[in-house]
Amino acid sequence: QVQLVESGGGLVQPGGSLRLSCAISGDYYAIGWFRQAPGKEREGVSTISRSTGNIFYADSVKGRFTISNDNAKNTVYLQMNSLEPEDTAVYYCAAGARATLMSQWYDYWGQGTQVTVSS
């Protein structure tokens, strides 16, 4: 059993930054960050493999978002820079068996944290 708790969401102006945290209890192979905006399908944002360190990003966030992990704290971070209104969504972290942006590979999900980018 894996439990995940996200934090760090909030309201930020366009061009601003936020750092999301995902605190994890239990063993996992990969952590993914996903987001879902109202009326839209859930989208894979980034993922990191705990063992290999492999990292992947969605094209929409490349160059703006950075995923990292602190194994000592069992926490994965998502640093989000140059935020745009289109980044507004509920962001979820998830634990799964494969570092992929496809949500079906993830078995455990956090409760989500709201990110709103607006002036």
- Average pLDDT level: 96
Helix percent reads under 10%
Radius of gyration: 13 Å
- Strand fraction band? over 45%
Helix and strand sequence = EEEEEEEEEEE
Shape from CA axes? globular
Low-pLDDT stretches: none
Number of strands: 11
Task: Give me the secondary-structure category.
Answer: mainly beta
Number of helices in the DSSP assignment: 0
Largest sheet properties = 7 strands, mixed
Distance between the termini: 40 Å
SSE layout and pairings?
Blueprint: E1 3-7, E2 10-12, E3 18-25, E4 30-36, E5 43-49, E6 55-57, E7 65-70, E8 75-80, E9 89-96, E10 106-109, E11 113-117
Parallel strand pairs: 2-11
Antiparallel strand pairs: 1-3, 3-8, 4-5, 4-9, 5-6, 7-8, 9-10, 9-11
Structure, described:
It is a single chain. The protein has strands at about 5, 10, 20-25, 30-35, 45-50, 55, 65-70, 75-80, 90-95, 105-110, 115. With about 120 residues, it is mainly β. Strands 2, 4, 5, 6, 9, 10 and 11 form a 7-stranded mixed sheet that branches. A 4-stranded antiparallel sheet has the order 1-3-8-7, with no helix packed on it. A hairpin with a 6-residue loop joins strand 4 (about 30-35) and strand 5 (about 45-50). It is globular, with a radius of gyration of 13 Å.
